[in-house]
Amino acid sequence: MQRYDVLIVGGGHGGAHAAVALRQGGFTGSIAIVSAEPELPYERPLLSKDYLAGDKAFDRLLLRPEAFWAERSMTIILGRTVVAVDPQARAVTLEDGEALGYGKLVWAAGGAPRRLTCAGYDLQGVHAVRTRADVDRMMAELPDVEQVVVIGGGYIGLEAAAVLTKLGKRVVLLEALDRVLARVAGEALSRFYESEHRAHGVDLRLGARVDCLEGDGQRVTGVRLADGEIVPAQMVVVGIGIEPSVAPLLAAGAEGGNGVAVDGLCRTSLLDVLAIGDCALHANRYADGAWIRLESVQNANDHAAVAAAAILGGEDAYDAAPWFWSNQYDLKLQTVGLSTGHDQAVLRGDPATRSFSVIYLREGRVVALDCVNAVKDYVQGRKLVVDGARIEPAELANSLIPLKQMGVAVA
Ligand code: FAD
Fold first, then answer.
1. Nearest to 201 by CA among 164, 151, 247
2. Does residue 302 line the site of ligand 1, with CB under 6 A?
3. What's the whole-number mean pLDDT along residues 31-57?
4. Residue 408 pLDDT > 80, yes or no?
5. Does 35 sit in the ligand 1 pocket, CB within 6 Å?
6. Alpha carbons 361 and 14: distance in angstroms, whole number
7. Closest residue (by CA) to atom 12 of ligand 1?
């Protein structure tokens, strides 16, 4: 059995960054990354942006050039899936039965797209947007597609809708709730994005319940709504979230549920097994200490840095401020902090100018910012979030006063 000092499961943002951070931190032991996708680590966010738009070839998405990994003596095992973990034997099993041993195991397996459960969910022409293979399949079909139904008004659904519209497709976007981005943003931001999508020609429907997908026996032909209407479609894009890929770890006895639970050093309850990124359930101070999973490049990279440092003997716990971005049309949204649980939202600037921010407060403290084409607010507002600053809403709303000039007194 081949054994590695550090075995990383998952070659996405977290897995790749953990390997890089280990070498940068002076780790000289053997490192291997085993990943289910056949690709070298790449920038996943670009899948629903520049890559789907055809603006960037895949090789420009690679996180590092191919030679980088071998030059740093890292073994990359692609297209292989870990199906079991044996913490006593310090070994994992791959789908073909091969076992790999480890000194430390870093679980960075991300998540798999949640599927529809209704009839027709598996028809041809129904797509998720998670991997390069998903997007390549979509792109191959697009020339024969006139109308796409996007199910889900989260970031991925909205980004896909924006790109598909730009590519000249008619797009119908179905959101089950009464506003888009309901899980991650306040109402002002939701309403702004709804009107932008409609202005770009997207037929955006709120409170739209999917009954089932219609097909001709093979391919999808439409989406039947709960009220009986059938929306025709030659392609359906499903963006309704992910399920964390943690089954082998939970089966091995790791604590968790919606993800695998980790402490501040990204350690799971299993000896010498760490977990990072989308699949890691952690207590986050920006969520008031609640146990959450974050699905962002920031979180994957910062977790990776903490895990690598912990393997090298460090004791600095994860405490990074969450940040995220989304590109739709010519709008660049940048967010910092977590708005979940806010009790006040302050509008700074005028959405009609397409450059504004929403600042979220909880019990008088700034907890998050959503900045649309407002880089200065994003850069300067970050400190307010980190400090949990108490600032009068009227002052925050005054866009003539730069955020960096605002007091940061913390009671
Ligand atoms: P992943 O990047 O998902 O990597 C996990 C890897 O592990 C995958 O390659 C998977 O195949 C592999 N794997 C899973 N199970 C196994 C197994 N059992 N054995 C072996 N390998 C396994 N974030 C942002 O911050 N900004 C954005 O704009 C943004 N846009 C996005 C757009 C899209 C279309 C998507 C899908 C995501 C986007 N995200 C964005 C989220 C971001 O990409 C993720 O948060 C990030 O990739 C998480 O990194 P990770 O390493 O935890 O998981």
1. 164
2. no
3. 97
4. no
5. yes
6. 30
7. 10
